[in-house]
Design goal:
Layout lengths: L1 H35 L7 H42 L8 H30 L1
Helix pairs in contact: 1-2, 1-3, 2-3
Keywords: Membrane, Transmembrane, Transmembrane helix
Length: 124
């Protein structure tokens, strides 16, 4: 039960970080999709503006990648403990499953954000 207490205590802090990461992604995702398209630009000014936007959003998305990876790193020791104490024949513990789900979501989010950052950077 000590592990469950650690998970609960950690989630009291990490849940706020997860909410911030989700809100950040939700805020920038529509613009990232627009910037990854190939909008028609009619002059050099519009092309320069598009390049600056892509650069700015590439940096913002890279920051999100680092943030999600850092939060995942905070949860990693607990996730390792959950796997070490896993008893396939034992009872299902939702708190531990939730930790593993959050860890997986953070890792997938970090990878997706990283890929988007690289795509934006290359399109500049």
């Amino acid at each position: 039960m000590a592990l469950d207490k650690q998970i609960t205590d950690t989630f009291s802090v990490v849940s706020l970080l997860l909410a911030v990461a989700a809100a950040y992604l939700a805020a920038i995702w529509p613009m990232i999709n627009d910037l990854l398209g190939d909008p028609r630009v009619s002059d050099n000014y519009e092309a320069a503006t598009l390049r600056r936007k892509r650069t700015s959003y590439a940096v913002a998305t890279a920051v999100l990648t680092i943030f999600e990876a850092a939060v995942a790193a905070i949860l990693l020791p607990l996730a390792v403990q959950v796997f070490e104490e896993w008893d396939g024949a034992g009872q299902f513990i939702p708190l531990r499953a939730g930790l593993l789900l959050a860890q997986g979501a953070l890792l997938v989010g970090a990878v997706v954000a990283g890929v988007m950052a690289v795509k934006l950077w290359r399109k500049r």
